[in-house]
Amino acid sequence: MNLLFKFWNSSIGKKWLVALTGIALLGFVIGHLAGNLQMFGGADKINAYAEFLHNNQKLLWVMRLGLIVCFIGHIFTTICLVRQNRAARPERYSISRNVQAKAATRSMIYSGLTVLSFVIFHLLHYTFRVTDPRFKLIAEGGKLTSVNDVFQMVVLGFQSPVISGFYLLSVALLSLHLSHGISSVFITFGLESKKSIVQVGRYSMLIAVLIFLGYASIPAAVLLGVLK
Length: 228
Hints:
Layout (H helix, E strand, L loop, with lengths): L1 H8 L1 H26 L6 H12 L2 H31 L15 H4 L1 H20 L9 E4 L2 E4 L3 H9 L2 H28 L8 H27 L5
Antiparallel strand pairs: 1-2
Helix pairs in contact: 1-2, 2-4, 2-8, 2-9, 6-8, 8-9
């Protein structure tokens, strides 16, 4: 127990927890993107995927609870680490990095909080369906039935330029957050060297850009009339 307490109290321990929860969240971001991109396969494709998730509620809730724990743990530990670093003498990595002066580093807390607000809205919008009355009931064959067409729901949601704009802004900030976070994981685990520092930064940025383009492609396709 003392060992765990010492681990938590140390800045290295907190950095490890931030890195581990960050890896788990990155896995979710990529997996969620893979599911979302099935929109381009048509209504049957994405609706079948949604039906599969709906039919596996136990597994889905285990994943949700794990995600919530990682999300809260990531934010709480990051805040504690920032406060600890500010109270103590600034610590430096063994490798001098210009990336620490970049916007991604300076805005980690703010981008993280913006993404958090987006996640809350996103859940209220598409999961709990309380922000748009069209998601509760739709006209289908002259009758009102419960919404179960995920394809139609996504198209209806992103037809709003305001919602699509907020989505794109949040995804951009998430990608900015990831561009620094992925690189930081290598530093925390001691996997970065003077030779690999540039490559790690480039690959981190590439992954972040690909994630942004993947998520942004859906609202863009809806607004351009590709998905309708």
